[in-house]
Amino acid sequence: MSTMILRPKSPLRRHVTQPGAAPTVAVPSWLRKAVGAAQTVEDAALATGAAIAMLDTVVRRDEKWAGAWRQRLALAAAAATARQMGRVEDEAALRDSFLLTRPGDDVGPGGLLLLGWRRLAARPAGELLTKKNLAAVLEEFGFFARDGAAVSDLADALRRLATTEGAVGMLTGAYAAVEGHGLPRAMGPWLADALLAQRLGWSHAIPLLGGEAALALGTARPRRPATGALAAGAGTEADRAKSLLAAEAHAALRAIDLSAGLERRADRLLAVAPKLRAKGANTVVDRLLNDDALGASRGDKRTGMSDRGLRRLFDRLVELGAVRELSGRATFRIYGL
């Protein structure tokens, strides 16, 4: 079944955070209800199309805080897929594994999983499904190909999906490609998000389905051949398609809600930035807008700030209400929007 992603003709409901600011997309109540009430594949596809259209509006605004938004979603995706894979790391532990280790240090299996999702959020969308990048992310997800044939076959399969399938077929096909190549199931959301970004022409992918792992990865594996099942709207293939579409719709709304909160905090950070007198403060502000969080225990080589100077800057930003301390610790503290 090929279903186009629909864009609503009526204007999106928006509110403005402050005079002169770009409008913030607000999810209307009817869409939240439609996402939760979908009973058929067709209902789910329509609701998902509307949700993705609203998300597309946020993406194409290309705000200064978009990097932090994508990386915050990547962290949530890593934590959710880690749980689905039977691991115990939560968001805080995964964040620590990344920020409290030096480049090149062993970050552990959970940390590697986070690196894989961060890769999705940071690399240009057009590079995500190349053989080289797929090989790297497969290793981060715990799969080590003995030769390049498996990676090459996967890249070819994804290329066919991107050029021949509609929105629903592309989504379910990403999971089928994972199963057909014997890859970790957690790769399904990653590949589907990359395919969606390329289909919509986004400069960077938005980590969506990983954060809904219970829905996106918990779908039943088909018990019989898929031929005709999805088109008929019945059987396990239809159930799987509906579950995946529901997961994507919920993920899109969650991403939009997160963008609204981050936008308010980013506006506050940008408003207080001119008051900062510390050397390198502008670089720190820029990094806060482009990443999930920053540590304050090892200084900042990009700005020449010592660890003491960086901690004083972050204390000032917290005092001004521009950033939050995220670790809850007295030492090795971590800050972000």
Automatic annotation (TrEMBL):
Pfam families: DUF1403. InterPro entries: DUF1403 (IPR009843). This is DUF1403 family protein.
